[in-house]
Design goal:
InterPro entries: MciZ (IPR025177). With 45 residues, the chain is α+β, with helices and mostly antiparallel strands. It has one domain. The protein is built from two helices and two strands, in the order E-E-H-H. A two-stranded antiparallel sheet has the order 1-2. The model has no long low-confidence stretch (mean pLDDT 91).
């Protein structure tokens, strides 16, 4: 299972049941895909 979080998209690579499991897991943490992407960006102070 691989997850690639890029600037404007999230790509999940794996078996269907793995992708389904991970999407359900991330749905509990993030409301939108944009929130997920923003959380992965490095913080510049």
């Amino acid at each position: 299972m691989k997850i690639y979080v890029q600037e404007q998209k999230v790509t999940l690579v794996g078996k269907a049941w793995q992708i389904n499991y991970m999407l359900k897991k991330y749905m509990k943490k993030y409301t939108t895909v944009q929130e997920w992407i923003d959380s992965q960006r490095p913080k510049h102070s």
